[in-house]
Amino acid sequence: MAVFEVRVPKLSESVAEATLLQWHRQVGEAIKQDENLIDIETDKVVLELPAPGAGVLTEIIKSAGDKVVAGEVIGIIDTEATATVTSEKPKDGSSAPSGQPKMPAAASMSVASSSGTPAAMPAAVRMLADNNLSVEQVTGTGKGGRVTKQDVLQVIQNRSVTPQTAMSKRSVLQAVDVPVHLDLGDRPEDRVPMSRLRARIAERLLESQQTTATLTTFNEVNMQPVMELRNRYKDKFEEEHGVRLGFMSFFVKAAVAALKKFPMVNASVDGNDIVYHGYFDIGIAISSPRGLVVPVLRNADQMSIADIERKIAEFGEMAKSGKLTLEDLAGGTFSISNGGVFGSMLSTPI
User: Fold this and answer.
1) Dihedral sign, CA of 166, 172, 173, 178?
2) How far apart are CA 247 and CA 262, in angstroms?
3) Per-residue confidence at 61, pLDDT binned at 50, 70, 90?
4) Cα 98 from Cα 238, distance rounded (Å)
5) How far apart are CA 270 and CA 20, in angstroms?
6) Are the C-beta atoms of residues 1 and 59 closer than 8 Å to each other?
7) What are the Cα distances from residue 262, in Å, to 132, 255, 280?
8) pLDDT tens-digit profile of 168-188?
9) Closest CA to 324 of 47, 37, 21, 34
């Protein structure tokens, strides 16, 4: 029997562990080489793990929600096995049901698939993991008895609410953005478990404040000429380049010009050394559903206004869909954050 071990990929040096999010195949289901098998969340990005070879997924060792480390075996693919499960496209157009480790056939509250494994929709899998529930605790109302996110939400809402269960109930909001009222008396509190990314952001912000000397200075800049220029050419710009003309490209160009004039600012501290960078990699702070991320424009000094706007738009879509890679976020010699989009008049980013 020829088998492939599905292993957690190498993580960045600063990432010790990751969390399994969603299996895209069930035990007994065929998979092609390089097809996305599972999503893995680190404290920086969500990674897609491609199948190391074609065959049948014969074993899921680690389930959605489990903590894993680089190199750990999480599943087995048999190249000579025959598929016993056929993926079925749900009516709602979502992806095929995610795989779960084999569970007892006696599970009375969930309808089993042909492989004997209770089936749950991908969104339901994540919600189950977030709320420490098993699929047997939910009655599936989807096609073929599949468990949907609404089924899981109903179970959570029907729980008796106590301060101990409040955290689990509130965490549903992170996955499905559905309001859950928590009746905790006249002094209610909501506890929301932080995602790995938000926990890392909090840790790094605190570290930054403790290890660097902070100085804030404000200067007024007349933006009227830039606003007039943008209004005059924005329609023609979008028609020619296929992307909207915003203000961030002007800010990037201004930052690069300033860094060229004052190269000491385009530097970083490494141990006892100051590293003066001879290139301009500008980090652009972007708000995403998972938290603030800062993808990097490489060699921004060599990019045109259109290149910058196009790349920022691309980063925005990647952040929204969780497709940013560690390489997209690594490095950066200077960062820009635009608080104006949130109505900020003055801000002091960390």
Assistant:
1) negative
2) 22
3) very high
4) 40
5) 33
6) no
7) 53, 10, 12
8) 333 333 333 333 445 566 777
9) 47
Does the CA dihedral 233-235-239-243 come out positive or negative? positive
Answer yes or no: pTM beyond 0.70. Answer: no
As a whole number of angstroms, the distance between CA 214 and CA 316 comes to: 29
Residue in the block written with tokens 């996955």 = 175
Do 92 and 149 form a contact (C-beta atoms < 8 A)?
no
Q: Which two tokens stand for residue 115?
A: 């492989």
Please give the distance of CA 344 from its chain centroid, rounded to a whole number: 26
Encode pLDDT of 270-312 as tens digits. Answer: 888 899 999 999 999 988 877 788 999 999 999 999 999 999 9
Label each residue of the chain as H, E or C. CCEEEEECCCCCCCCCCEEEEEECCCCCEEECCCCEEEEEECCCCEEEEECCCCEEEEEECCCCCCEECCCCEEEEEECCCCCCECCCCCCCCCCCCECCCCCCCCCCCCCECCCCCECECHHHHHHHHHCCCCHHHCCCCCHHHCECHHHHHHHHHHCCCCHHHHHHHHCHHHHHCCCCCCCCCCCCCCCCCCCHHHHHHHHHHHHHHHHCCCCCCCCCCCCHHHHHHHHHHHHHHHHHHCCCCCCHHHHHHHHHHHHHHCCCCCEEEECCEEEECCCCCEEECEEECCEEECCEECCHHHCCHHHHHHHHHHHHHHHHHCCCCHHHHCCCCEEECCHHHHCCCCCCCC
The 10s digit of each residue's pLDDT in 1-28 is 588 999 998 887 667 788 888 899 989 9
Cβ neighbours of 282 (radius 10 Å): 27
